[in-house]
From TrEMBL:
The lineage of its organism: Bacteria, Bacillati, Bacillota, Bacilli, Bacillales. One of its GO terms (molecular function) is hydrolase activity. The keyword Cell cycle does not apply. Residues 24-133 form the Cell wall hydrolase SleB domain. Keywords: Hydrolase. Pfam families: Hydrolase_2. It comes from the Bacteria. Gene3D superfamilies: Cell wall hydrolase SleB, domain 1. This is Cell wall hydrolase.
Length: 145
């Protein structure tokens, strides 16, 4: 059973975001970005309250900017989803979760080492250039389901 409800257009949208954010990190890196997208959709806490769909998550605006840099900068995000990335997105949506993004709600690509916290949340791990951060269990239990 999928962790969140989704449509074919959600799969394509998520695939576009995964590619735009992590194509240089290969399939594994794109799957980790997909984990974060699904986690934000499944959780109902912190900055991600009332986000119920993949589209809600990807087009979320915080502080006047889109949460995902690729939405505002364009680049690969505005290209059509390819079948390879769609398969990865569907894999995330159906079942795939893995460390360091298994419970992560945030990631970013720093210019140096990964800081021990991000927005007050602990560092979960790193994959290539991206640092992943998961919420403390007492602040967002829903992501751990």
């Amino acid at each position: 059973m999928p962790r969140v409800k989704y449509t074919d257009s959600d799969v394509a949208l998520m695939a576009r975001m995964m590619r735009a954010e992590a194509v240089s990190e290969g399939k594994q890196g794109m799957l980790y970005v997909g984990n974060v997208i699904v986690n934000r959709t499944a959780s109902d806490c912190l900055d991600f309250k009332d986000l119920r769909t993949i589209s809600d998550v990807i087009y979320q605006v915080q502080g006047g900017n889109y949460s995902f840099e690729a939405v505002q900068k364009g680049n690969l995000f505005y290209n059509r989803a390819r079948s390879a990335e769609k398969r990865l997105a569907e894999k995330n949506l159906k079942f795939w979760r893995q460390f360091p993004a298994k419970y992560s709600l945030w990631y970013f690509n720093p210019s140096g080492a990964c800081p021990p916290t991000w927005f007050g949340q602990p560092f979960a791990g790193q994959y290539k250039n991206h640092c992943y951060y998961e919420p403390q269990a007492n602040t967002c239990a829903s992501v751990y389901r």
